[in-house]
Amino acid sequence: MVKVNIPGSRRLSNRRLNSIVLKLILVAATAVGLHGLPNQASGLETVNLALTNRNFQMALYPIAQERGYMQEEGIDVKVILVRSELSIQAMIAGSFQFSMAGTMGLVNVAKGGAPLKVILATNDKVLSWILSKPELTSLKELKGKRVAVSGVTSATTIMAKQVLAKHGLDVDRDLSLINTGGTGNSIRALMAGSVDAIVASAGERYAGRPSGFRELVFIGDEVKNSWGTMATTDQLIQEKPKLVAGIVKASLKALRFIHKEREATIATAMKFAGLDKNLATRMYDDLVGTFTQNGIVDEETQRNDIEVIRQITKTTETIPIQRAYDFRFAREADRQLTQSGWRP
After folding, report:
1. Domains in the chain, start-ordered, CATH in brackets?
2. Buried-most residue among 41, 59, 110, 133 (CB within 10 A)?
3. Is the pTM of this model over 0.85?
4. CA of residue 218 relative to chain centroid, distance
């Protein structure tokens, strides 16, 4: 695993972005092997997959690599940690073949018609919760309270607003949203008592519950949206469909593995995400039902995702589903695995 951080302004020219990213990839390659080129020694094609963090959900990819699923498809995948926005820019520039920042990819599609598609969904439920001080017992009691979010226009914040509205709250009038600027900051604000509730990530949820904070709602049960989506470029789909099909098929094998192999999944998550066994076990038991069986979400979910993107970008035009998603590879891989009777 390699982590890439880009210093300086976020507003980089394409030329400068290419230069910086390619230099960093070259440095990373020194440690873990040459990236983005055929591996002559192994006969595998090495590709770069961008993740935004090491978490339980993304243990899917070490499973796919360690169990040999990627190798069976002729792929040696290199997982690299990169900020979501940068990973999309770098993927368009050709430094990455795939990114797990699918939501950010769709933002780029909506804003400027970026040539990208979401090709896989890891989860069909949003892994986000609203946690509060223990004295609050319902969402309606958030009226007049301060609620911390990781970004006022983030996907999770928009979904949380939808949930609060369903429960009779006018977010703009009834409560104060406090932008804490990133994952992890919100739970610290709640622990410090500077806010009354937070829109929590999975990591924050599991950090907050032992401290006595109350879980008011699991947002994934209230909205119908995807989570943990993989994006790639239209160019790669057109020029290397076999590679795209291969990484999707390997990912589906890993998804099936997660559903069937509890102890082995827990062990991989412990190593990959740095979790102790009790926490990894709790996360598996709580979250395994949110993982898709076939990497696909239905058209209603796709439309809901696109509506969230429209609100993030504050555009009036809605992206057509076919412009944003391409689940052909997942459908075909699922058909092949089912027809062959494949089991982990």
Report:
1. 2-124+227-340 (3.40.190.10), 129-221 (3.40.190.10)
2. 59
3. yes
4. 17
